[in-house]
Please model this.
Amino acid sequence: GAPFKDHIVGILKACIVAAFSFQGTEIVGVTVGESANPRRDVPRAIKSVFWRILFFYISSILIIGLVIPNNNKNLVEAGGVGDVGISPFTMVFELAGASWAAHIMNAVVLITVLSAGNSGLYACTRVMWVLAKEGKAPRFLRKVTKHGVPIWALTFTALWSTVIFCISLAGNQDVYVFLINLSGLSGIGFWMGIGLCHWRFRRAYVAQGYDVKDLPYRAAFFPFGPIYALVLLVIIIIGQGYGTIWPKFDALGFVSTYLALPLFLIFWLTWKYTKKTKWVNMLDIDLTTGTLLEMEQNGEIDVFPPDGPWNWKKYFRWMKRKPTTE
Model:
């Protein structure tokens, strides 16, 4: 029973959906190139993302879990893609007797979905454009308009997004679940790569004689944070397919759950074989090319003083400030 429905199997099944829903927070790193003052804006954005996830995501999920029972008919009888409009947020207001607020919540959910689609379109377009510039994607995707818009990367992303969206609506819910598994597991792989890169970057930074205090932003709980993330993500990946193996092997479910893994290995091993790349030693890792410091030295971006720490004392001092009069 609740709160551990289906025990460990239910928790592992929920992890892939949670990963699918939480993906996109890493877009903060993608938008660095769009910031006029990365030293100030990026740390602020990363800190604000943490608090937004804590209050708006985790807190709201906790409240929903406390209000809506796991055997609610709108959850149990949700029979496919056509029932996706039954939002748990809407159900909370309906149970509270405020049916008018449920319509407002539906509008909020719709706006949120559009916002998520817009940010995903931006991130994918920019990543495809960068991959094309580095020779890892077709060259025609490098083309930009006179206003700096990567037009072909944007068109490519929009076209495939539309095709995949239409496919997800066709047939039964199996296609939709397959796409969620593919996207969710791919996102977990991305997070593992981010955790590994962060761990190696910090070690290489110190090994090459740099001072960590000079970094514009330093992630807390290092080295425990990236190691914990890597171990937890590996456990989620391994345990994700547990329900497809026991008590009865489900071949279709197993393939849809783990298809992202062989696809990743095929692309990765093909690249390493064709480009003859090798594991880079800590002392040989390039920590200067394309960095914020190099762009400042080359005059590509303006130099701003580092932003000071932001804490609750500074916030209350700002709240108590005296208004200026002319």
